[in-house]
Amino acid sequence: MCLGIPGKVLEIHTPDGGMPMGKVEFGGIARDVCLVYLPEVVVGDWVLVHVGFALSKLDEQEAREIFSYIEQIGELAEADELAMPDELPDELPEALSPAEREGEGAA
Amino acid sequence: MEICGGQTHAIVRFGLDEILPDEITLIHGPGCPVCVTPIEMIDKAVAIASRPEVIFCSYGDMLRVPGSAQDLLTVKSAGGDVRVVYSPLDAVQLARQHPDRQVVFFAIGFETTAPANVMSVVQAQRLGLDNFSVLVSHVLVPPALHAVLGSPRNLVQGVLAAGHVCAVMGTREYEPIVAQYHTPIVVTGFEPLDILQGIYMCVRQLEEGRAELENQYARVVRPAGNPAAIAQVQQVLQTVPRKWRGIGEIPASGWALRPAYADFDADLRFQVQHVAAAEPAECLAGEVLQGHRKPPECPAFGRRCTPDSPLGAPMVSAEGACAAYYHYRRRESRDRPAEGTEPR
After folding, report:
1. In chain A, what residues touch B14 (CB-CB under 8 Å)?
2. Which of A90, B136, B192, B344 is most buried, judged by most C-beta within 10 A?
3. Of A3, A50, A52, the CB nearest to B190
């Protein structure tokens, strides 16, 4: 619930009911998100989304970084299925890319 | 101390506490809204959800939180219409689709979910729905911070504030807290690198003898927060005293519906009579939530208390400290020493 997910606004529309809604893309999955709290948002902006509402605007570079982290820890699946994974790996997830690990040397 | 349960999970999962020097101790704070929802609220939710005319909608995390006798999942498996929703607007949609049923939404959370939760009420009002109501149980971070920092047992010297709470509320309400307790507060994000940077900024303040509010999460958090969201929340909700599960009542620490929105208050609509709440005596959730104990120190941890059969909420919630240690430090819990000291 605390974890917001960043996504890119693909389109904006105002259906009956009167609230601006956006089609927001999170790594290939597009979801309807309510944009009522970010009236200044335009198509192409990146927004941080909580429980179906965009609450903050971010710049694209920062959004890409957050998104790769969330993908790593499988939160996108959690947000989609709303369930805690039953099986978790025994080992800690990789925090470094293979190239960075190679460069570690003797730590 | 990190406030938010999401930060706790990142710390435990990525072993940030284990890679930091021994001089730095991380204490987990009470920022798990599912964990601190009072047991009386769970019992009310269970009672309302058990009514045949009700479609009870909730964020997924709440379903397995133990009440005095049952949880919402038990109600569902007994035939109750309990539905997990991603957004409060999904609950409003259900109310439109089922005019013959009473749709109730469990509106819990810290300040982060309040803008979404109140919009469901605003929408329902706009649509003229008479079959939609909300059971509200919001909690606020600043009063909790006062309770922690003002406690005679307090050992916290620096605070990582919850980044997404501050994305909504801004940072200004933390400045008086910094001043009152002379404690650095750094608004921090949720990536491992965010958390390490937040800790670094706290330590640097302490070493320089400063106590200031700093913002590590500036890419998301602005000092004024989200003014449109704050205005909408303040229109619909008012500050009330709130009981925090495991901790007790903290004054002016919760939000409830204003009288103008009483028509949408599930508490009033269903008039649930409360039965005295009973927590298992073994459960140390309160100690864990206030940062006085770590989950592996609890004698029941991993034994009589597991996510499948939890004694308390922190073992069930995705943001609960007990669940984090159970899922990411299970080898430690199996091998932990008899005297209950925390393993390295």
Report:
1. 92-93, 95
2. B136
3. A3
C-alpha distance from B49 to closest chain A C-alpha (Å): 19
Number of folded domains that form chain A: 1
Question: Measured between alpha carbons, how far is B238 from B218 in angstroms, rounded to an integer?
Answer: 28
> Is B109 at the interface with chain A, CB within 8 A?
yes
Residues 6+ apart with CB under 8 A from A51: A1, B59, B86, B87, B88, B113, B116
Q: Do B89 and A34 touch (CB under 8 A)?
A: yes
Quick one: CA dihedral A57, B35, B86, B53, positive or negative? negative
Q: What is the mean pLDDT of residues B310-336?
A: 81
- Domain membership of residue A69 as a residue range: 5-81
* CA nearest to B229 within chain A: A37
A13-19: average pLDDT: 80
What are the φ and ψ backbone dihedral angles of B94, each rounded to 5 degrees?
A: -60, -35
Q: Would the ipTM clear 0.90, i.e. be above it?
A: no
Q: Quote the pTM value.
A: 0.85
Classify residue B235 by burial, with Cβ atoms within 10 Å: 0-12, 13-18, 19+: middle
Q: Which of A88-102, B65-79, B153-167 has the lowest mean pLDDT?
A: A88-102
Q: Reply yes or no on whether the pLDDT at B172 is more than 60.
A: yes
Contact B164 A84 (CB under 8 A): no
Here the CATH number for the domain that contains residue A39 is: 2.30.30.140
B209 to chain A, closest Cα gap in Å: 31
CB contact under 8 Å between A1 and B221, yes or no, is: no
Q: Which CATH architecture has domain B35-139+226-270?
A: 3-Layer(aba) Sandwich (3.40)
Domain residue spans of chain B? 2-31+141-215, 35-139+226-270, 285-334
Mean pLDDT, range B324-342, rounded to an integer? 64
